[in-house]
Amino acid sequence: MHTLYDTRAVHPLDRYEYYRAEAAAELAPVSVHGRSPGHLLAVMSVAKIGDFQIETFTWGADREVVVRRTEQLIRTSDPGWYRIFLSSTPGARAEQADHRVEFRARDIALYDVSLPWTATHLAGPTPMRVIMLTFPQALVPIDPATVRPLVGTLTPRNMPGRSLLAQLIIGLAEPTATDDPGLAEVLRECVVELIRQRLGASTGITPHARRLLQQAHINGILRQHLDNPALDPGGIARAANISPRYLHTIFQDADLSPMQLLKRLRLQEAHRRLQNPAPASTSIKDIMSAVGYVRPDQFARDFRQLFGVSATQARRLAGERSSYRGA
Known about the structure:
This protein has a domain at 1-166: Sandwich (Jelly Rolls). Helices cover 41% and strands 21% of the residues. It has helices at 15-23, 71-76, 144-147, 162-172, 182-198, 207-224, 233-240, 244-250, 258-275, 284-290, 296-307, 311-326, and strands spanning 2-6, 31-33, 40-49, 52-61, 65-69, 81-87, 92-96, 99-102, 108-112, 117-121, 128-136. It has a six-stranded antiparallel sheet with strand order 1-3-4-11-6-9, sandwiched between helices. Strand 3 and strand 4 form a beta hairpin. Helix 4 (162-172) runs parallel beside helix 6 (207-224), helix 6 (207-224) crosses helix 9 and helix 9 (258-275) packs across helix 12. The longest helix has 18 residues, at 207-224.
């Protein structure tokens, strides 16, 4: 993810106006109303996965502020997108299409970026954090008029597949999240199934969509534990709160087993670190250890097998490309 704006980067007296200007330049621009808080924290981070945009917003202030998506702003910028809003913590209130929601932790609601809304960022001692998954309406093969009764309403907590989707969205907002484009297909299928289910067009997410969600969840767990050289199927299952047998079931139709996926993720992370010219002083041995490898010969063999070059060559090639771009 990269930071779109962060009020900590400006003088405290300028933070409110800075936030107002940045909010007017978001994917779905909004106008900000209310008196300037004495204390203000507003941070927006964004990432893209295919046609999906993940936005993480953190807010903390000693005075509530109201943001509005108005008809005028919609006429100026209407990308024709839906937005799934997930509250990681309480502290937000939103209204759209005559529906009003006071969010609790892990609540999920669907919004239409093409319709006006009003949101209130509440004051409080603990910062609020929300995650927004925004995607084109064209990805949902359902008439927007049919979907409209759902906008601005909470997704029932007992809806099959809801907690898995929430788990995935929260994982995508983490610093270790992947930008694997294959995740876009997982998101598309699961989001469409969730909407169909709420409309009564299905009784739950398909077994295929459920497996995709579970595999994506395991992927996130593996990324969080890359540095653990002792991680094995039992440890993966314990981290996911499932049995080793069920872990095998989740991956029985996948291209890679959990341990093969773990090796692939470790090597990809090592390669990513070698592409970054900033920490070039970090030794390849330290990078190898940071991604859970113990034996240098095994790391060297696996790295060359996947990327076709040695780690040393990969670092040198990355440096040459960086020098060429800077010339």
